[in-house]
Amino acid sequence: MKDVALLRKRNLKAWVSVDEEVSILARYISQAEWEELKAQCTETILNPITNQTDIKEDMPAFRALLGERVVSDIVGLVDSEDLDDSGNVKPFPATPANIAMLMEEWTEFRLTVMGVPMSFERMLDLAKAQTTKN
Q: Is it the case that residue 133 has pLDDT exceeding 70?
């Protein structure tokens, strides 16, 4: 049986692999949340000459908002240009700016964020497996 309590509470989270080294802590998002984010990044413009409306979508802004809504942590990434006081490479933090950059520059990351967190069944399976493991 599938427990929908996590849907109601909107707190279904699971670690999702992007590749063999990188994982994200992703939150399930509903279709309504997806559409809400899309609407925030969509503008309807009336053409005064033709009297027709044009829809302009700001896809980079949508991907940034989606990434920020879905991703709460990242493991397995470092930035070799960001060193601590001892000269060691620091982990790459899951800041909104970093997530937006990854959404634009890394196809596998973007596809993972745009796909897995919208699959209730996949997220439930991942969460259940991780709970069982711990």
A: no
pTM metric for this prediction? 0.81
Question: Rg for the chain (alpha carbons), in Å?
Answer: 18
Q: Which of 6, 61, 57 is nearest to 29 (CA)?
A: 6
Q: 115: domain range?
A: 5-46+54-80+90-133
Q: Of all residues in the chain, what percent are helix, strand and coil, respectively (each to 5)?
A: 45, 25, 30
In-domain check, residue 85: no
Other beta carbons less than 10 A from residue 47's beta carbon = 9
pLDDT in tens, 102-125: 999 999 999 999 987 677 777 778
Does residue 32 lie within any of the structural domains? Answer: yes
- Residue listed under structure tokens 């590749």: 19
What stretches of 1-134 adopt beta strand conformation (E)?
A: 13-17, 23-27, 42-46, 53-57, 71-75, 78-83, 89-91
What's the pLDDT tens digit per position in 38-49? Answer: 999 999 888 888
Structural domains of the chain, count: 1
* CATH code, 35: 3.30.2220
